[in-house]
Write a structure and sequence with these properties.
heterodimer; A: 434 residues; mainly alpha; Cytochrome Bc1 Complex, Chain C; 2 domains; two-stranded antiparallel ribbon; 17 helices; 2 strands; B: 334 residues; Cytochrome Bc1 Complex, Chain D, domain 2; 11 helices; 46% helix
Amino acid sequence: MSFSWAKQYEPKNQFMRWLDERLPLPRLIYGAVGGGYPVPRNLNYLWNFGVLAGIFLTIQIVTGIVLAMWYFSSADGAFNSVEHIMRDVDAGWAIRYAHMNGASFFFIVTYIHIFRGLYYGSYKAPRELVWMLGLVIYLLMMATAFMGYVLPWGQMSYWGAQVITGFFSAFPVVGEPIRIWLLGGYAPDQAALTRFFSLHYLLPFVIAAVVILHIWALHIPGSGNPTGVDVKNEKDTLPFHPFYTAKDGWFVGLFILLYAVVTYFAPNYMGHPDNYIPANPLATPAHIVPEWYFWPFYAILRAFTIDFILPAKLWGVLAMFASILLLFFLPWLDKSPVRSGNYRPVFKRFFWLLVIDVLLLGWAGGSTATPGVVALSQIASAYYFAHFLIILPLVSMNEKTLPLPDSISSSVLHGEVQEAAPLGSKSRAKPATA
Amino acid sequence: MGFLLALPTAILGYFLRIGWIRTIGLFVGAGFAGVLLISLGSTASTYLSNPPEPTAEEEFHKHPKHLNLASDGPFGRFDEAQLQRGFQVYKEVCAACHGLNLVSFYSLEGLGYNEAEIKAIADQWLIEVPSVNPDTGEVATRKAVPSDRFPDPYANETAARAANNNALPPDLSLITKARHDGGAYVYSLLTGYRNQAGYKNEKGEELLKAFPATKTPQGLYFNPYFPNLNIAMPPPLSSTGQVTYAEGNPAPTVDQMAKDVSAFLVWSAEPKMDARKGTGNAVVLFLLIATVLGYMAYQNLWYSSKRKVAPVGPLDPVNKAKRNRASKKAGIKS
């Protein structure tokens, strides 16, 4: 940790001293999430979503390991093994619904975490690698979630696998052989199901490893904060434990409460009814849609409807990959020295436009492709690319930003002199005239 | 010549100023946005030159009617008497064509049957379980036992299609989870058969006048709750008293039988629903208390490190003291 005032670990007893001298694991934890990690004192609740994402990763790994004890990755038996878990295994329904909705909640908290980063400029120096490792986690999450959705081998599982692996066939010459190589056959079947299960079990541990790198890279400069102003001295920070463990603690409780309400009372709300029909390669569902967390990308894919130089399908696939890959370049696209959107009036407006844009894309991706929906996804996709690749660079070059507070501790009083005047101070402002 | 070079020089200078990542980004962004706008133009011109015509399904397909079941909502629980009636309807009407191959006989305890009753139900089930003759090794069937799942009514898909005019009666185990608004969908479908001649939607349009080509073909039945309006299943519930309910139960009208069998199929899709909601209530209550306690701990801990805010207006101690002095002076007790 880079701050000189960070507290050092002091073993409390003989055993911990003995351990610390041989394997300083307690020291590592103390410095990472204990009293030895100084955190800006002005974090708002949007800073709780990183910890929440970690909690949901843990929930997914634990429930997933238990499910794998009962799940049977066979094209003939997968669907029935999931129903066996739901009907005959003790509390199997609880584990399966927890896993199914845990995936959705993992994405909900991750999306909030990403948009918090976008608004507060968390991708800017010196945290570029934190941002990029986060995007790697996000890509791994998408792959894991997609393969997990295939495992119950329902209609949407099967046809989702068909459509998504079909992306690769958009690439000329090499595309189709790659698709067949990935699936282990011409269409999703036993080979695809088994390898998806294998990778679905592997990738969460890869995610956990990248999470460690993500946190490691974060702890070099320390956490950002809503003002975007660097920490200057000890007055600007509080030790992570007990202050932020307490703040995270109750907020995690609140979010787990929401998760429990959905899991126990509306467990299929975020799923698709067609996935309760066993996979049938001969019957295509009326509307193939991915899970909700992929809808914005699905809308971008479907927005390209004409063969302009390249085939429309290839445009769609390229744009879909580009829509995520461009985020890796964000630290260099947005060169404004001011991090926080709070002090960037023009950026702030475009940020909220982007939020609305992505919500519209999500809605369009989940809807049937009528001409109106297609037109909307075309406009919204065009804005998405324009936002990151044209508007953001121009705004960051020309924007007149607001004055930044001198420090984090002075920002606490920023513009609130009257309210914040300490009791008994001479400079008490007069109450407004009645 | 100078002006010919001025523009490229200015453009080059601009790109050098903004850096290569942003230059490439600008071209990529403009490329994607441009192709999207061209696509938008083609969407619009297709729409204008060739506007999509409304289909019979869009205009005449109906969303399910509302259905109230005892199992609705976080505190709803299955009504065992209704489930038993629904099971009776399934057994006497649906089971001839529709399987329930994910449901075990033993799980009928969820309907309130005891072990002996379940044994009897399995033993008397008309369709027998595929088996092997223990003496000859030949293919045979045997009577069902409680640990069996409900045997399928047909040996395989081909047999099912052959017996049903090439239509496949779906297995009903998960039917209410595999359709939007499943329980209400089954109820609406069972009570939704109509005479197609003269059928009008809410807007008063007559189906056969608006879409003469949609006349129900021979061997299908018109039902506006079915996605494509024509279903291969003949109306299964046709008259009051088709199933004889035991005494003390409501009269077996078509509507009542449809409700009961829908309730049963909601159960068959998720027999553990009562346990789920019961556990859910306890879990939510526990988390609520834990979260409130956690919040209080957080408030307590942060109290000293939060800035103190001086009360203003009527709560300002200076003003409070003034008020008290004035009241005292006027002889008013606060």
